[in-house]
Design brief:
By secondary structure, the protein is an alpha+beta fold. The chain is 32% helix and 24% strand. It contains 6 helices and 5 strands, in the order ββαβαββαααα. A 5-stranded antiparallel beta sheet has the order 1-2-5-4-3. Pfam families: Pyr_redox_dim.
Length: 120
Amino acid sequence: PNCVYTEPECASVGMSEQQARDAGYAVKVGTFPFRNLGKAMAINERDGFVKVVADEKYGEILGMHIIGPHATDLIHEGVVSIQLENTVEELMRTIHAHPTLAEAMGQANEDVRGLAIDKG
């Protein structure tokens, strides 16, 4: 993973949307803003988002990008997902505790398929 310890933190793993397209993938992207999470509201850290880049046909996660609170900690879900060739559907079925910042990971994956709730 690439981690930048700034304010806000930035982290990424895998391909960007453009890199995936250049590699020949048909790409679907999902995003979810931290501002809609109860935990982000509670800690007054509402800026930022999670972005998931996935293969449109099979749903394989090709990249994950995070800007916001604890991005350098949260990126590891993306690291493992890419290493194991997980799909967005597999992460959609993964329970993310509430209220946590990690809920944004699940919601971004759901957004790839147009199923995110509370996106605002």
